[in-house]
Amino acid sequence: MKTRVLALACVLVVAGGCDSVSSQKIQQWKGTQKGPARLQEALKRASVPPRLRAEAAAALNDIDMADQVDQIWPQIAAAERWEILKSFVPICIEGMKSSDVLKMRAARDSLFAVRGFAQPEEQKQIDAALMPSLEADIRAGRVTGGRHSIDKMLAAMGPSAGPMLVALLSDPKVPYAGTADLLVRVGDDGAREAGGAALVKRAARTPEIPVPMWRAMGALGGKSVLDFLTRKIEGGSQNDAVMAAQALQQRREPSALPLALGVAGHQKVNKAVRDEMFGLVEKIGGPEAQRGLIQIIASDPNDIVRYRAYEAALEVGKDAAVVSALESFPAGASYKKEDVVDFLAKDVTKLGPSGKVAARKCLASGSALARMTGVLALENLGDAADGAAVLKLSADKGTVKGFPAGDTVGKEAARVAALLQKK
User: Fold this and answer.
1) Other C-beta atoms within 10 Å of 121: how many?
2) In this predicted model, what pLDDT tens digit does every residue of 252-274 receive, in sequence order?
3) How far apart are the first and last CA of the chain?
4) Burial of 241: CB neighbours in 10 Å, binned 0-12, 13-18, 19+
5) In sequence order, what are the residues at sequence separation of 6 or more whose Cβ sits closer than 8 angstroms to the Cβ of residue 342?
6) Coil/strand/helix, residue 412
7) What's 303-315 look like in SS3?
8) If we measure between CA atoms, which residue out of 262, 201, 207 comes closest to residue 240?
């Protein structure tokens, strides 16, 4: 009987030899071979006072066993765990004061690791303790490192982290790229708008805006950014206009669509700028974008611009845009056969199976260019079953201006139908 009582007593205390747990022994165990196991047992055992269990958890963190601590927390009953955290949280906060970056981060990571076990009010207190440390790292440009990334911690905090990031972006001494990226991820609309405005002020004071700053502004978006980039597109140097157009493509900004269509369709604007604006139209997308692109196809005198607008229209509307886009090309314009193959038919082919459906619809169009494009697209997309549909156009006398003499829609249809029927 005495033996059983003694054995039970050994279980209730923690380590081999029935040692009791104390602050002194916890520190000693950090440097012994059996110490890590004893520390884990101390953290797990309900018979150990909460303050000492907290010290054991901190000791495990000190010897690079934070992952093991993270695995133990869920195993502890909620009521017990909260009593431990009352002592553990202050230990972590004190550790975050270390001038050693690695030790500071280890303490911060440990504090964040228990955040999810806290009640909302306690979480706010933890966040308040984490925020200055995160701000210091971001201010120093240290946005990576640690067990838990800065963006993960800020994402958990949510929009409450926005004002701090905006304040950092307002400081010209703080690296902006990583800060802006963090704000994009965790900030709400108001914070991103304020951050964009702060970055615009920094850009306005910069003689030559670097590429990362253009991109950061574009990623944040908002009215201040849109106004600034619009001014650069409409009145800046060619390089600034191109960079501003590329910046606007960093995020979907529907309010920029009128600008994008207006510049893309402006015949006197630099070609490189126009091309970037077509990319912006593609990024924004939607029915209005598709209608605007079709209008450019119908009205622009430059064939290359029309082909670029057609490419963008298919990018925006996919197969649903094919027929209307082809029918919008001016009937009286001249089209080289190789251009129709390379710029029109191939773009339909790129759509894959849905492009095949669109190509068949083109066969019934009133536009000779649309019918010709449909036939040429089916040459690559079609199969034997499509050959019969194409063959029906073999008597089509329609022609496309610019094609070789005698090269009618019917002639191409007969050629392609023969190829398809062999598949």
Assistant:
1) 7
2) 999 999 999 999 999 988 899 99
3) 91
4) buried
5) none
6) helix
7) HHHHHHHHHHHHH
8) 207
Q: How far apart are alpha carbons 19 and 171 in whole angstroms?
A: 55
Q: Cα separation of 293 and 322, whole Å?
A: 12
Q: What pLDDT, in 10s, does the model give residues 297-332?
A: 999 999 999 999 999 999 999 999 999 999 999 999
Distance, CA of 91 to CA of 327 (rounded, Å) = 72
Q: What is the pLDDT of residue 20?
A: 87
d(CA 344, CA 5): 89
| Contact predicate 391/414, CB 8 Å | yes
State which amino acid sits at residue 107: A
- Report whether 276 contacts 266 (CB < 8 A): no
Beta-carbon neighbour count of residue 21 at 10 Å? 24
Q: How far is CA 32 from CA 10, 14, 37, 39, in A?
A: 20, 15, 10, 11
Which pair of structure tokens corresponds to residue 271? 């070609």
- Give the Cβ contact number of residue 399 at 10 Å: 18
Q: Is 73 helix (H, G, I), strand (E, B) or coil?
A: helix
CA–CA separation, 215 and 177 (whole Å):
9
User: Where do we find the tokens 């070609």?
Assistant: 271
Show the 3-state SS of 243-268.
HHHHHHCCCCCHHHHHHHHHHHCCCC
How far from chain centre, in Å, is Cα 180? 13
The long-range contacts involving 394-399, CB below 8 angstroms and separated by at least 24 positions, are: 396/371, 398/368, 398/371, 398/372, 399/368
Q: Are 198 and 169 in contact (CB under 8 A)?
A: yes
DSSP three-state, residue 339: helix
Cα 17 to Cα 4, 6, 9, 14, 419: the distances in Å are 15, 11, 11, 9, 89
Phi, psi of 269 (to 5 degrees): -80, 145
Instruction: Write out the two tokens for 403.
Output: 């094609």
